[in-house]
Amino acid sequence: MKKHLLFFLFLTLTTFLSAQSEKAKELMTSNEFIEEEIKGIEWKTEKYFDLGDIPQNKPVTVDFVFENLDDEPILITRVESSCSCFVSDFSKEPIMKGAKGSIKASFDAKAEGPFFKTFLVLTSRSTSPNVLFIKGNVR
What we know:
By secondary structure, the protein is of the alpha+beta class. It folds into 2 domains: 1-34; 36-138, Immunoglobulins (Immunoglobulin-like, Sandwich). The protein has one helix at residues 2-30, and strands at 41-43, 48-54, 60-68, 76-81, 86-90, 100-107, 113-123, 130-138. The strands form 2 sheets. Strands 1-3-6-5 form a 4-stranded antiparallel sheet, with no helix packed on it. Strand 7 (113-123) and strand 8 form a beta hairpin.
């Protein structure tokens, strides 16, 4: 009985996570994804990177760069990845007006196949997270 319950819970969770990932892909490809822009930030790079085909076991790093256009300093307070296969590093000091900050995302590329990952970014100036996306195919 316990095995059946655990299997059912696992199957339900897997289905839910798969559906969420598919919905995110649909939104990105249909250009219907809407989010709150962080006041005072201008992204200097795209917020969506398509890495194409990348070799297996060769880590890849993507650098999301932004500039603070606001008079108030901006501090990145949190960055969360949708997968432990990504490690993120970000500017820890307040970013002053006219200065640039960055969020670096490193992907381990161990598992073969397509991937689509998201990063939620919270700052001292945001009321909801900004979302960054990376997709590609490990071959």
